[in-house]
Design a protein that fits this description.
4 helices, 256 residues, 17% helix, alpha/beta, 9-stranded parallel sheet
């Protein structure tokens, strides 16, 4: 059974699962699908096109599946998908997709801190921690288990690798490859995320190989030459292959 405060509004066409708690002054629009056991504290807005999974907690002032802040948007029928077990804190805004991709995606087990924004057609992975007032422009991709500090600004189309740690107050228009610490001004490579990788259970040997991969990558003037050095000198484990694939597929170039 759902518990819906009488001061909340739920559109008759909204589809709700079971065990949800919807607090006072929440607004749930039509064409929304909400799973089971979600908690929406007071003044949460679930807009047209939202698809929300299970066991999420959404805090006051959050707005999910908002109309994209994109002048090319012409009212096309798009959605915003949110997975399971997310903590979406106060005043977080997540836009729905545009004709470009059709969907904005937030995975599962993420902590989205107060006042952060995820723009249209972004893809946020699983297990990420994203700090207060961080802003993602359109079509940013963040891989799993990234930790992004407060007030970080991302240009559109940027790709952020998994297991990174990004310093607060940074800004980037280039991709940030996996397993590293990124920071300083202007933003640049600041070493391998040793503490984060150890906490995630990476072996010392794996961490050493990752460290060596970046030493080789950044020792060359051209990234292509650095990738060849990695291929010729390191065992191609899944972690090393991830680095190779990330760099070779980068469209915006990676930070140095």
């Amino acid at each position: 059974m759902n518990i819906i405060d009488p001061r909340a509004y739920v559109h008759p066409e909204a589809k709700l699962g079971d065990g949800n708690v919807i607090g006072p002054f929440c607004f749930i629009d039509k064409n929304t699908v909400i799973g089971d056991n979600n908690v929406m504290q007071n003044s949460v807005t679930i807009n047209y096109g939202a698809r929300i999974g299970n066991n999420n907690e959404i805090f006051p002032g959050a707005s999910i599946s908002t109309k994209p802040q994109d002048l090319k948007f012409r009212g096309e029928d798009t959605i915003c998908e949110v997975g399971d077990n997310n903590s979406i804190r106060e005043n977080v805004t997540i836009s729905r997709g545009t004709a470009s991709k059709g969907t904005t995606i937030v995975g599962s087990n993420n902590l989205l801190m107060e006042n952060m924004h995820i723009a249209h057609d972004c893809v946020i992975g699983n297990g990420c921690i994203i700090g207060n007032s961080t802003k993602f422009a359109g079509e940013v991709v963040v891989d799993d288990n990234a930790i992004i500090s407060a007030t970080v600004l991302f240009h559109q189309f940027v790709h952020v690798g998994g297991y990174v740690m990004i310093q607060g107050g940074s800004r980037t228009s280039q991709d940030i490859p996996p397993y590293i610490i990124a920071g300083k001004e202007p933003i640049r490579y600041a070493g391998v995320n040793l503490v984060g990788l150890r906490r995630r259970g990476f072996s010392n040997e794996t961490i050493q190989n990752i460290h060596e991969a970046y030493r080789l990558l950044y020792s060359k003037g051209l990234l292509k030459e650095g990738i060849e050095e990695i291929k010729n000198n390191l065992p191609i484990t899944p972690e090393i292959q991830y680095i190779i694939d990330f760099v070779e597929s980068s469209k915006r170039g990676i930070i140095r």
